[in-house]
Design goal:
The complex is a heterodimer of chains A (488) and B (255). Chain A has 488 residues and is mainly α. Chain A contains 19 helices and two strands. Chain A has a two-stranded antiparallel ribbon. Chain B has two domains: 149 residues, no CATH class; 76 residues, no CATH class. In chain B, 53% of the residues lie in helices and 11% in strands. Chain B has eleven helices and six strands. Classes of the chains: A mainly alpha (488), B mainly alpha (255).
């Protein structure tokens, strides 16, 4: 669910965006650290055992393999952004794939790229072919390419300083307190004070220090790159806007659906007495309904992992989580296309059949009925405007709401009531899809000029109430109630 | 549906009733580079002053002896401790911070007082820990204490910032101000009120669409506008136009 992102997306400067990444890591640090240790300790143990006799290579390998380590925090961060928690068990299950697959590019050509921290999310969270990936990275780097170089340099510097600092602390705490060198196991294992640097023992010691230092710093570097990646997408693709738009669309569709459901119930004559309840359909209720509906098992988010791995040199995306499904794996492209077309055709056929079979029940509730029947619209702009949904005496009910302090219900009732009158008594062709502006235009055709000007005033008040969050003054409300021109 | 607030580095400070200012605290990396720039600058100052001083002294032919060494140490002391305090008190930023687009303020957003400027810079000796000795009498801060504290506080404050109640912020422009705005008059778009009530955040998003539409390809604009099919009632290019009309209405004519 893209609109459930857990960080505030807005365009930032490059530096600010890497700070957001740091904040994300800080929030998740205990979990990230636990996951890191569970995967990295065994890996490094194996590495140290294999390369024990070649300590220079050991140090080099610990440094060179950093892109592999980065996969672990990146996996958790990417999922967290969309509100999915990654438990330790889940991560351990995913770890072999993370460590072994798809890393060839970043361990060879891409290892020294200064923008690696931005490029890795592109490759592993979006997938795509190698050329598509290169194009994407180029596009994303238009924003903040020099900053990422400085960030990479900065974090590399910090990891080195951290190792040096650890060395100083170990020397002062452990080594210097020991009078007799031979008693000190750490010294025995790693180093010897009398030896010159670059002895095998010193290199092993340095590799060990670097492991600790990478453990402490690397996930912040990954987070910084991830934050910059998100920022680039916000800039270049309006990702922050997309997130809000999707949320808004979901809200509107849900309102529309609830409206339809209520309308259908009313037509079936099951709940005349529930009509006021239908009128009370304020955003909170809708939100609750939405939460309820979304909690049902049908809406559960299922995710599966697909692995397409046909060639090592052009290693394809190895994971395709449901939350990242902008790109399907290439090889399956046509299959999904055909499936999608079939599904759409089947869906349309089903709808047509349903309308043909049960259409008569819904006459008047949807636009598929003849548009020449103006009474058809039961909701306009999400407002319930059918006669059954409204009380007989609209101005006095509205006044009652006003006195209870329910300003929104009062305004809503007045506006919906006037729309209802204009549609059913005034015979104006107001449709479900009409806007306030359209309704105003229709209202100019009313025979009584007083009604038109009343409706203009009402619309202004209503819109400044709903859009501007400005409540009408008591005098205005009194005027609206007393002057109500839409009598039977 | 959203139980936890969204993560953001921006901090809101209420300076008066209903008046908020936004501080954008800066993390350790840009500050580290600012430190490096300041360090180089101080070395340059020391070297230049010493050169001028010794040249002048040898020109005048004065035997300075211990007095010269004393002056040199005094100079080092003033530059080491005065540089930051004076720059940050007087201009709110050192040259290094200026180069990185940073400045220092109290957490309430007001400029530093003398005690705050002195306190936050005295504590550099703690934040700089552990100190690495390079060469005789010369120390370089590994600054792990400062780094660790900054990473784990919400406003990226090191020890000195915490005690002096200060914060280092980005003082440059926000990004929005720098973006080109789509010229509505040129495209002959008329405002259109949206059909449904929109929350502040949603209105903001539609306005941002207008502001940044000039940056995107036609395909991307269409893609974004298509998400709002329930609002605009159309898709494709017509949807983009419809959305831009609503944005114009929100910008210019909304009550």
């Amino acid at each position: 669910m893209i609109h459930e992102v857990t960080a505030r997306l807005r365009p930032r400067t490059g530096w600010e965006s890497q700070d957001l990444g740091l904040a994300m890591v800080r929030n998740l640090l205990p979990r990230l650290m636990a996951q890191w240790l569970c995967v990295m300790l065994p890996l490094w143990a194996v590495l140290a055992a294999v390369l024990w006799r070649y300590p220079g290579w050991l140090l080099f390998a610990v440094w060179w393999l950093k892109p592999v380590y980065d996969r672990i925090p990146l996996h958790t961060l990417g999922r967290k952004l969309f509100g999915q928690e990654t438990s330790l068990r889940e991560l351990l299950r995913a770890a072999p794939a993370l460590l072994l697959r798809g890393n060839l590019y970043f361990l060879t050509i891409g290892r020294l790229a200064p923008h690696r921290a931005i490029a890795m999310p592109v490759k592993f969270l979006e997938g795509g072919t190698l050329s598509a990936y290169r194009r994407r990275v180029r596009t994303l780097l238009l924003q903040g390419d020099s900053t990422i170089t400085w960030v990479t340099l900065g974090w590399f510097g910090i990891s080195v300083l951290c190792a040096v600092g650890l060395n100083m602390m170990l020397h002062s705490v452990i080594i210097d307190t020991s009078e007799n060198d031979s008693r000190n196991w750490l010294l025995e294992l790693f180093t010897s004070r009398r030896s010159t640097p670059w002895t095998p023992a010193f290199l092993r010691y340095a590799a060990f220090l670097y492991m600790v230092s990478v453990t402490l710093t690397e996930m912040f570097y990954v987070g910084a790159g991830f934050g910059m990646y998100l920022n680039s997408r916000s800039h270049l693709e309006g990702w922050d806007i997309e997130v809000t738009f999707r949320g808004l669309a979901t809200r509107l569709q849900q309102q529309f659906k609830v409206g339809l459901m209520v309308g259908a119930l009313l037509v079936w004559g099951l709940s005349i007495s529930n009509a006021p309840a239908a009128l009370e359909l304020d955003p909170e209720t809708t939100e609750e309904r939405l939460t309820e509906i979304m909690a049902q098992p049908e809406f559960e988010i299922h995710s599966e992992e697909y692995t397409v791995y046909d060639d090592v040199t052009t290693s394809k995306p190895d994971t395709s989580d449901s939350s990242w499904n902008w790109h399907w794996p290439d090889g399956l492209g046509w299959v999904t296309d055909v499936l999608a077309v079939l599904l759409v055709v089947a869906f349309i056929a089903l709808i047509v059949w349903l309308i043909y079979r049960y259409g008569h029940h819904f006459v008047g509730t949807r636009e598929t009925s003849k548009p020449t029947v103006p009474e058809s619209a039961r909701t306009v702009m999400g407002l319930e405007v059918s006669p059954e949904a409204l009380p007989a005496d609209i101005p006095s009910s509205a006044w009652a709401f006003w006195q209870q302090g329910n300003i929104h219900a009062a305004m809503r009732l007045l506006y919906a009531g006037s729309l209802n009158w204009m549609m059913h008594r005034g015979g104006l062709p107001i449709r479900e899809s009409d806007t306030e502006g359209d309704c105003l235009r229709h209202a100019t055709q009313l025979p009584d000029a007083g009604q038109t000007s009343y409706f203009q005033f009402l619309t202004r008040t209503w819109m400044s109430h709903t859009y501007g969050a400005t409540n009408p003054a008591t005098g205005e409300m009194e005027l609206l109630v007393q002057q109500w021109p839409f009598k039977k | 549906m959203r139980a936890e607030p969204k993560l953001d580095t921006m901090q809101t400070v209420e300076v008066a009733e209903g008046v908020d200012i936004y501080l954008r605290p800066a993390g350790p990396i840009p500050r580290g580079f600012a430190y490096a720039i300041d360090l180089l600058l101080r070395w340059v100052i020391v070297v230049v002053v010493m050169l001028i001083g010794s040249l002048g002294i040898s020109f005048l032919g004065i035997e300075t002896g211990e007095f010269g060494i004393g002056m040199f140490l005094l100079l080092l002391f003033v530059i080491e401790w005065g540089y930051y305090v004076i720059c940050e008190k007087v201009w709110g930023r050192t040259p290094g911070k200026r180069a990185m687009g940073l400045s220092v303020v109290r957490t309430s957003g007001v400029p530093l007082s003398w005690p705050a400027a002195i306190l936050r810079n005295l504590l550099r000796s703690v934040d700089g820990l552990p100190w690495l000795s390079i060469g005789p009498q010369s120390l370089f801060p590994l600054a792990l204490v400062g780094l660790g504290t900054a990473l784990f506080t919400k406003k990226f404050q090191r020890m000195g910032d915490l005690l002096a109640d200060t914060v280092v912020i980005y003082s440059g422009k926000t990004v929005e101000a720098a973006l080109p705005v789509l010229n509505a008059a040129q495209n002959q778009i008329t405002p259109l009120p949206p059909a449904v009530a929109l929350s502040r955040e949603e209105q903001q998003a539609i306005l941002l669409f207008l502001e940044r539409a000039g940056l995107w390809s036609e395909g991307r604009k269409t893609e974004l506008a298509d998400h709002l099919k329930p609002l605009t009632g159309t898709s494709g290019h017509a949807g983009v136009i419809q959305l831009l009309r609503m944005a114009l209405w929100l910008r210019d004519s909304a009550p």
